[in-house]
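Cont'd.
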Amino acid sequence: GQQLNQSPQSMFIQEGEDVSMNCTSSSIFNTWLWYKQDPGEGPVLLIALYKAGELTSNGRLTAQFGITRKDSFLNISASIPSDVGIYFCAGPSKTGANNLFFGTGTRLTVIP
Amino acid sequence: EAQVTQNPRYLITVTGKKLTVTCSQNMNHEYMSWYRQDPGLGLRQIYYSMNVEVTDKGDVPEGYKVSRKEKRNFPLILESPSPNQTSLYFCASSLAPQGMGYTFGSGTRLTVV
């Protein structure tokens, strides 16, 4: 079945450090989306990527659409305690119908 | 305020007792979807709807039903809940999911004992 592999599964970092995480697919995507889920809440869209090689920023967050179109990367610079949460990548589902398929998530813990 | 509203937020029920989780959106979105979230498995789609009276199965539809009689509402029905349906459930809506992503509700934590 369809799989989006995110790594690492979890991270513990010190406040102020930079963070990198990635998402890989066995199939080519034409869209990559990155979400963040705060504890006790639903996921919120952070960044959307639509073109291979595209680099997009949202404040301290930067995401890249891999040139192979099979991967994407999310970087967080100068992490702060409120960066804590689960980060999900998402891409087009093979079920079609303009559907989205989500990765398994990267859980980030920031130590003050 | 544009939002997706789910109710209830928390629910504990017994095996076999039918339940409905409601979902409503005020953004006039065509697409609505239900996901469940389990540790280590991420978000898995249960059912989705492309418009009124148009629904289809997602990746894990067994044991669930949905209906879309009005554009704004998309209830999730568990006719005979079982303990393996204990999970965190999210409703979401979108104009164009692959392009714009989904807007999610705050979640419903269901425990089936």
